[in-house]
Structures are given as C-alpha cells and as structure tokens.
Amino acid sequence: MVLPVTTFAAGSQPEYEMSLIVHKYGGTSMGSVERIRNVARRVAKWHAAGHQVVVVPSAMAGETNRLLGLAREISPQPDGRELDMIAATGEQASSGLLAIALQAEGVPARSYAGWQVPVRTDSSFTKARISSIDDARIRGDLDAGRVVIVTGFQGIDPEGHITTLGRGGSDTSAVAVAAAIKADECLIYTDVDGVYTTDPRVVPEARRMAVVSFEEMLEMASLGSKVLQIRSVEFAGKYRVPVRVLSSLTDPLIPLDEEMVSGTLITFEEDEKMEAAVVSGIAFSRDEAKITLLAVPDKPGIAFSILGPVAAANIDVDMIVQNQSVAGTTDFSFTVNRNEFARAVELLKREVIPAVGARELSTDEKVAKVSIVGIGMRSHVGVASLMFQTLSQEGINIQMISTSEIKTSVIIDDKYMELGVRALHKAFGLDQAPAAKE
Amino acid sequence: MVLPVTTFAAGSQPEYEMSLIVHKYGGTSMGSVERIRNVARRVAKWHAAGHQVVVVPSAMAGETNRLLGLAREISPQPDGRELDMIAATGEQASSGLLAIALQAEGVPARSYAGWQVPVRTDSSFTKARISSIDDARIRGDLDAGRVVIVTGFQGIDPEGHITTLGRGGSDTSAVAVAAAIKADECLIYTDVDGVYTTDPRVVPEARRMAVVSFEEMLEMASLGSKVLQIRSVEFAGKYRVPVRVLSSLTDPLIPLDEEMVSGTLITFEEDEKMEAAVVSGIAFSRDEAKITLLAVPDKPGIAFSILGPVAAANIDVDMIVQNQSVAGTTDFSFTVNRNEFARAVELLKREVIPAVGARELSTDEKVAKVSIVGIGMRSHVGVASLMFQTLSQEGINIQMISTSEIKTSVIIDDKYMELGVRALHKAFGLDQAPAAKE
After folding, report:
1. Which of A123, B212, B325, B356 could form an S-S bond across to A157 if both were Cys, CB 3.0 to 4.6 Å?
2. DSSP conformational letter for A275
C-alpha cells in the first residue's frame, strides 16, 4: 500500500523519504484531553507526510501515582504482581484515548496493551526487563495504513502475568519497539527540547547539543542529566537505534522538516557530522556523601569485605577509590547517595569495621560530583589535566578522582559545585557552538 | 489439598459443607479503600471457613464513567474497540486492589483480567456476549488454596481484542464464571438486601422474598426491578446456577450461617421449599408511552410494516396489542419508552402511516405498566381476573392487557400507578409472609 505523501512547502519536494518512526510521549504530554489532542495532531502530521508511525504513550500525568497510592493505602508492602496489574492500567487507558483522538483527526489508529503485541518480559514484577517483542501485529496494522499505539511501561511474563518495567520504563518500551520493528528513528517527545552541555539552571550559557553519542549519553544519564531513562539508552546502543530527544511543547503543526532536525540526536555512528568538541558536556550530582576508612589492613579481598555488606543492605555505591598501600595499610574511600549516608555509616560501624579493622572512619556528607564527558577524550591527551587546572585556578580542592575512557569525575566540596561547573563549561569551550569536523 | 474448616459457633459443627462459591461486588461495594478492605474481610471469612471463593468485582464507583467521559470529551462518537480498551481498565485496577487487600488479611489471592482467564466473547465491542470461559487457570489457583479474583465486565474476542459486556455486565461475568467452574452458588453482593415483592418506596409493606424462581426474576428484571442485570438471570437459568442477591452493607464479619440464608435466592428448582404464593411480586414501570394506530387496513404483514421501521430506528417496543379485525380494519397499539415517544411518533407520521394507511393516530404519553408475576399462575385459574377486579374496585381503567404464562401486565393511566400497585400487593396477600408448601 502506498501512503499519501504531503509536502509542506508548496512546490518543493520533501528532502526526507518515507520512513518508519516511533514516537514516545511522556505523562506530561498526555496529561489532559487537550494535550492528547495535540499529540494526535502531531502524529497525524507525520502520518499525512507518508511516514509509518508507532506511538508509545505514558499514562496521563499523575495517574500511575494515584493508582499506586491506592494500593499502598491498602497495604504498606503490596504484592508486586498485583501492583503491576494495577499500574499497567494507566497506559492502557491513555493509549485508548490517543487512538480515539487520532481517529477524530481522520487517522486510522489502533491501540495495543503490552500483552497484545506481545512485549515479552521476565517475571521481575515492578522492574521487569524486556526479552523480546513480536513485530507481526504491529507490522500488519502499519501495512494496513494504521498508526499503531503500543502501551509503554509494560509487558507479559512467560506465565501470562502482566509486568511493568518500573518508573520511566516507557522510554525503554519505545526504544525496544523501535529496535523490534527496525525503525529509522525513535523520537522521545518530552518537556525539554534536547540534551544540554550542562544544566542551564547552573550555567545560563549551556547549549543544546544537536548530536551526542550514546556512550556519552550513558555517562551523562547515569550522572544525573535526567532526560532519558538510562536503560533506554543502553537498549538504543545495543540495538543501534537512533534516538532523538525533542520537545512536545512546540506547536504540533510546525513544518516536519523543522521538527526532524530539532532536539538532540543520540547516535551510535561517529560519522563526519559529529561535533568536534573533545568534551561534550559537564554532568554533576549534588546528592553525594563520601566515606573513607583510614588505615585498613591491606590484604586480598578487602574491597569485598567492606562493600559486600553495603551492597547486601541495598545501598548503591557510586565512586570507589583505593589508594596505594603504605606500610601494610590502605585508605579506602567511596561515595553513596546522601539519603543513604546515615544507614551506610551505621552499617560500617556495626559490621564492617569490627570485622576488617580500620584506624579511623572519616566522612563528608556535603560533597558533589562533577564530571566531564566526551567521546573526543579517547583521542586527546591533557583533557583531565585541563580539568584539574581549571578547578585549581578557582581554588577548588579535589577530594577524589575517578576516570573512564570517555569521562573524568571529581568529588569536591558541594558549595563549590556551581562554580566548578561554570568554570569547566567555559574552559572546554562549551558555551560556543562547535565547528563541525568536515 | 484440604482447606482449614473453621466453625463460628463454639462447639457446634457447621451445617454447610465445603463448597465452591462465586462472590460478585458492585461498584459501590468497591467504592473506596475502606470498602475494598471490608470486601476483603468478608471474603476472608468465607475462605477461613473452608470454602473455595472466586470474586468478581466491578470497577470502583464512578471510575467507568470518568474513563468514558474522557473518551467522549475527545470524540463524540468514539470507536467501540478503543472504548473497551479504556473501560476495561477500571475492573483491572479494582481487582488488583482487592487482591492486595486480601493478602493484607493473610489470604493468598491472585487477580486476573478477563483475557488472562480467558473469558472469551464475540466481537461486539461495548456489548459483547460471553461465548466460553476456560476454568483451568481458576481451578489451578483454587487448588493451590488461593482466592481467585476475575475482573467483571470484560473478555477477549477471537482476534485478541479486549471487549466489554456493557453496563451491568459484571453480574453476567459472575454468573458465567459460576457456570464455568460449576459453583455451588453465585452470591451477588449489592446495596439492597434482596428482591422484594414490589418496590418498598411505593408499598411500605413490601416484603423481601427468601426464594424466587429465575423465570419470575426474568419477568421482574425486565419490568424494572433493577436488582440484577437481566442477561445475568438468563445465564443463570440457562446454566442452572443458583444466584443469591444479598447486601454488602452488613458487617463483613456476621456469622457465616446467617449470611448464607440472607438475601434472596434465585433458583431454578421448584422444590418443596418454594413459597406457596400464586403471585410472587408486583412489578411496574412509569416511563411508558402508548401509541395506537386506529383503523389500519388489516392485511398480512401489517405488524411488520408498522414495527419494522420502528425497530430499524433502534426504538425498543415493549407491549404490542392488536385487536380483532372489524370491517377489514384493525386497531394496532404498542408502548415505547417515554424518552423515545417523540421520535417514534415523528417516524410513524413520516414513514409508516403514509405507507400502511390509518384513520387516526392516538397517543398517550403518560401511562404506566403494572404486572403481576408468579410461577404459581401456571396452575391457578382466576389470577388475572382477581387483578382486573382489584383495579376496577379502585376505579382504575385498564387500557391494554398482555399476558404470558407467569405474568399479566396492564397499561393504566400513570397517575393511578401507586394506587394500583398497593391494591394488588394487598389483594394477592404479598404483605403477609407466605406459608411454605411443606
């Protein structure tokens, strides 16, 4: 079947070809009848231009919280299977509403719950992982000229129980559906217009990146640039799905060629168009706390002896640094989320220090983590030292350092965080539009 | 597996045996967290007494209307398939909440959406009919000692689309589940404590019936005693499922033997315990309008010529009376719901009368229907004449009469309706408790 192709500029040919696109809309974008109508108008525009479109919507804003609130009112520790049964209804309702809104725009549309596709997952209720997605049903409807709506956030386990992917899971659903149907691009519509070089609330000169590699995005997502759920980025990298983050707040009828180049494209291709910057962005996190065990006897297995009980208590550890051994003892430092600091310290005093021995426990509840991230760091020397120099010039003391191939992170006193981020943003030239390599 | 049997009166043995029971709770009974807790307490009591229990809950009161309201806000004529997708979420959420409430009472429980059982239906979206129910999954959980919760109101069609049974469909779901698992009884918990000899608001002496036959219930349901959805009664009759209507407003922990004999049992067995009354109840409906075509040429096919267009316009016709032909013409009367009266008259004037010919159109918008219903009428003569005599003594003119094997209905001026109902209730001795036949 040939879909009608509409050009938006009179007399001109569209530059793009007919393609297969996944749209994902968050809870805010689906938050009212009027907003659902706007989503329908935007999708209708893509459909009218000849694209095949699959839409993955979240539940209407507030709905999932309302449902889970009822469950928690009944029982403080509700059963995961039943929670998923309840929570999954939010996306099912919003998907049906979007189908009706599209039909009202004259666009044939059909919605499917996760189990109808099916989106298969494991049985980890409330935090399930997608194992496979059958594309036959989706393809059948696309070939019949329909827009297909697939509920985000949910699937079905091998025993036929409903599962959910956990908070933010709709991003992962969208990328997974895009991978399954081999979509040309997965568009994540959200309330920001893209990924920035750092948080514009801290650095007003922060710039939206036109392109970012998925490795960089992974490092930034995990460091607190909360644009996309990190699992969705992992998925995109694994299945090489180009993902674009863009705004759902623009006029839904803006010309398609404008929309197609807006936002930030997260790509797995390091092609000629990639920006030339060595460092792409500055990520940071305020809610860190540092714990150091001084003069721990340095023997094999010491790291596990310290961190094993911490992990068993479900406390996430972020940075870990162990200094070189001096006279048979070593200093062992790590950071945890500030919310879990008290629990971690209590655990160390009660269980760990009596077992492993340590001269002293030194803690700092008010530290921040600042990271520079960039794929260009792979092939450029001196990036870390420019970071250290910049911070030193501002009189900021570095307490811990940790590096990966495309990221360098430091722990500093949290009162210097904004100052450090601004200085680094300027030092790495992120306030100026980069020149393309070509 | 042997379930624990608890006796409620110390030292005594329970009179009942372990049985398989279906409970159905309406939207009001499920209307808040506290009410869901009460439902759980009641179900837990039955479970603790050794019964296997399947529960069919409605959506929380107001929820279905809220969801369908959103859909109608988006489109005045929303697609049926998508409406069902949306509406079915109400029962799915309430079922999950009830499972959590039961677990909080220490009762193992698991909820299933219609498609998970599966409850198979045809593809008539928003008014689907159940074709079959697979009992394997339910039985597996019952045998494992669990209470099983099955969403009311919904199923899955042969193509895997979600369907709903239409308003009040949860009653039908419950009876159908009871039929599928061969339950000993289906208990419909509602906000009334049973079926009455007539509406207590009209006749304060109206009595709750302990037992009523399903044929009588069918006649009463269709005549306006809106305790149970009529399709559920048909289902109960077809599959010989004993149904009991009882109150969900009693203390959930009242002794089980009290609860087991409360309400009204709708039975297909005309056994010795059936009440001896000739007439079981007086049903009535206010919202009737009468239409008469005078002097219609009497020829074959005349009834279809008149009522065919009416049915095609989706106007429900209730009573139909055609008098004997006089001089080649006949008078043809029927009643419609008062809401559809104007549309029916307009249709007759525009289409029917020009086609069939009639001397005159006579209408009365303010009539009521009063019916006496009773299985005993089969074997008792003179029942109808006592009805006519009673009304005559009150000076009430009878405008139309229609009879079936267990029912006699009359159309009267609606201002005499209450008077007629009270007089009939007394004349047939319904204000006194009947003597059992035995």
Report:
1. A123
2. B
